[in-house]
Automatic annotation (TrEMBL):
Species of origin: Bosea lupini
EC number per UniProt: 2.1.1.-
The protein, known as: Methyltransferase
Classification via Pfam families: N6_N4_Mtase (PF01555)
This protein's record includes keyword Metal-binding: no
Annotated region described as Disordered, given as residue ranges: 226-245
């Protein structure tokens, strides 16, 4: 299978193709941070639960079709040798993982209490043995639309940027690889944290989405870089600590 590459900047390279074929061509990778297909044959038609959401396309809920490779068990083996590794969906392939740290994304929304969604998702990080939790409320279509800068839900299993910021911050490496980047959320987190990012996705529609999201991110960064620095606020003594004679 041939693949396509977009070098968006010195620090962002995106590939459209099969990560197993592209991996041997990549240079030094310090960390793998990814949300691979879990092997659960997830039905991405979110309208199946209510039968009504198709009437509200502005919420970005849709039938995205099957996620490539999600119907077969995920084998994490080829990613485990990298110096730092974080993989989401670990409860689905836990028997194939060595002991490591457990990451818990608590996503249950109080407002959506009683819906079909899981309360949390489980990730695995290479090394250690602790359990670490992050609360980021699950984002429905409108919240995602805001995060996507007006683009409707970019991917059926799109992760929140805040969650991926937390993951990338848990690694130290300069160059991060997401071999199953979907719509590129890990890349946005890397851009915001000044890390180099290499992203791969097999489906051209998600590759195009990732390119677009990262281009928007780069433009915003340039805007911020050009904005004049705000003046430093005048130094004030904390209340109650003023110098008393
Ligand atoms: C769980 S999704 C990742 C979603 C991502 N976290 C986001 O925020 O958009 C996994 C992605 O891996 C892609 N994929 C499946 N097999 C692949 C392969 N062999 N190489 C590259 N990408 C693959 C699927 O197309 C899917 O978009």
């Amino acid at each position: 299978m041939s693949w396509r590459t977009e070098q968006l900047s010195d620090s962002v390279t995106l590939h459209c193709g099969d990560c197993r074929e592209i991996l041997p061509t990549l240079g030094k990778i310090d960390a793998v941070v990814s949300d691979p297909p879990y092997g659960m044959a997830w039905d991405t038609d979110s309208t199946r639960f209510t039968g009504g959401n198709r009437k509200r396309p502005d919420e970005g809920r849709a039938d995205f079709g099957a996620i490539t490779a999600d119907a077969e068990p995920f084998d994490p083996k080829r990613w485990l040798a990298f110096p730092e590794v974080i993989l989401w969906g670990a409860n689905h392939f836990g028997a194939r993982l060595p002991v490591g740290s457990t990451l818990v994304w608590i996503k249950k929304s109080v407002r959506a209490f009683g819906t079909f969604l899981s309360d949390a998702e489980i990730g695995w990080q290479k090394g250690g043995h602790g359990v670490y939790c992050k609360y980021v409320e699950f984002q429905g279509g409108l919240a995602r639309k805001a995060e996507n800068d007006g683009v409707q839900a970019a991917h059926p299993t799109q992760k929140p940027i805040d969650l991926m910021l937390w993951c990338v911050q848990r690694t130290k490496g300069r160059t991060i690889l997401d071999p199953y980047m979907g719509s590129g959320t890990t890349g946005i987190a890397c851009a915001r944290l000044g890390r180099r990012f290499i992203g791969i996705v097999i489906e051209p529609k998600y590759f195009d989405t990732a390119c677009r999201r990262l281009e928007i991110e780069a433009k915003q960064e340039r805007l911020f870089a050009q904005a004049p620095a705000a003046p430093e606020p005048a130094q004030q003594m904390p209340l109650g600590l003023g110098g008393e004679a």
